[in-house]
Design brief:
Length: 686
Amino acid sequence: MSESGIEQSEEITSTPFDPPQPTTLKQARKLGFLPVLLILALLVAASIAWFLFTAKAVEFSITPVPEKLKITDGFHYQIGKRYLMLPGKFTLQAQLKGYQLLQETIVVTTHNDQLLRFNLVKKPGRLNISTRPDVETRVFIDQVFSGTTPLREEQIEAGLHDISLISERYLRYETAIDIAGKELLQEIQATLEPAWITLRVSSEPAGATITIDGQMAGTTPAHIEILEGKRELSVEKPGYKKWQRRLQVQHDVPQTLDKILLTEADGKITVNTIPADASIRIDKNYQGQSPISVELSPGNNYTVVANKAGYKAVQKQVWVEPEQDIELSLTLVPITGKIKIVALPIDSELWIDGALMGSANQEVRLSATRHELEVRKPGFATYRKSITPQPKLDQQLMVTLKTQAEAKIDAIPQVVNSSVGDQLNLVLPGDLTLGAQRRDRGRRSNEILRQVTLTRAYYLGSKEVTNRQYKQFSPGHDPGFFGRSLLGEDDRPVVNIAWAEAVRYCNWLSQKDGRPVAYTMESEAWRLISPGTTGYRLPTEAEWAYASRFAQDQTPGRFPWGDSLPPPENFGNFADESATGMVPYIIKGYNDSFRGPAPSGTFPANNLGLYDLAGNVSEWVNDRYSVELSKDLELDRRGPESGEYFVIRGSNFSQGRFSELRWTYRDYGADARQDVGFRIARDVAE
């Protein structure tokens, strides 16, 4: 367009094309590497930025400071004391001379600042141990055997250690050492102290062998070393007695020993006899039974005498030299006696010392010693007797064999004892009448007539149970006082106990003596076990009455002493004149000197050896109280099965009325009373 604003036309012309030359193309390509470098730089910068952003600062605290520290298994960068490390696992190695190589796997977490602590461990130290004097000594390090001295370069962990040195002839050496470790060499030189003393041993005569604890140590005279402790020192020489002494040796306590005067050795005599087991005396001194060996002082003549029952004595003179062994054999001549035996049944057999001799009806001549004689016949109990024939006296023996049933009764012990001191006497069975006729003077309505047969033997306590015995079962029992009379003295019969307490005592005593109990609890009531056991129990009323009244007299009197008052002097403990003012009724003209209970067994026993069935204290019996009538014969009566009260039998120290003193008087109750005790009974074992 022209300045005048009028557009003018231009002519367009074509230009020829020239392709680019190679030099120009290379120049263009060189310019393309710059972006590549720029990209690479950006990548490196980004990687560094990423590392710096994600790496965590880790510091290592290692005690002591190592000479070399190396981290492997991952990229890390150290900045001063810290390392930049990506989270993950690495291996840490640290080295310092004298310490063990530390190689640990560490884990770098995502926390920003991390401090990892480690301790280098010292290498073991080396230890030399020697002794003065240089003797073989066992070495114990921390009580563990480590060898014998000299101990060279023993490797020991660093730290404090106990050292013990033990030698047979020296005192134990103890010390402690602090091992520095780090392969450093340390030494202990121990000076050992002798554990013996030197003792001079001399004898007269000389040349005797010295032994210590059985080990030969020299001949006299000699200086010998003796280790401390208890030692047996002996000195021996042929032809002389052994000298022996026990020494208590301490290494720091000197000892002296006087010259030992040896005495000539004894001779020995051995005595054998036919038969053996003869009593041997030498110069009237009893030595024992043959065969026997006896040591005797030499240079003497001795008288040897052999005696045996049933044989003539034998005597011999013997001369004894030092260390001489003498064998002496003596034959004893038997002394015999004659025994004539007459036996029934007539066809019985005779056995003597276990050998069958033929018919029991014969005369035998036996040595005057003890023999075991038996007379036997099938179906009869064997008769046994120990018998000693008399040389100048003919003996006769009459034997009547018993049936097995008769022998069984004879074999029952007459007396048995409990572990607390009770004596129980055997009572054989029989018939009795309980109660009294209606017209009998003083009869009470509860004295029902009953015919009873006891079919089994039984044992009954010879005395009433005492406080001493009962307190073993019930230590706290205190029966109190009766007026001014103390009821709790050990030897008095126990009182103030209920019937059930007496039963519990019986069961306790049964268990104590290893017996089955006699009572069991059923429906809250004590009952005798059926069939009966051999445990202790209360006697039944029938047993008590039979033992007190009928076992010795089938037609007994009204009272224990007869039919009229007063009792004979010193018969028993009743309400006598000394009890005036203490009880309602007394027996006039009678004085037994006891106001309260007397010691059990003070007054005479009956024919069965039973005390105080009348007087002293009344007694609980097993039966429950009943007044039921019975017309039938009752076998082994044990009373009714039920009832709240129990029978009490026998008069006591507080009773003086006519009715109460009779045999047939019956009382009853259940609770404790000051005038009621008990005695125990027991069945006979089958």
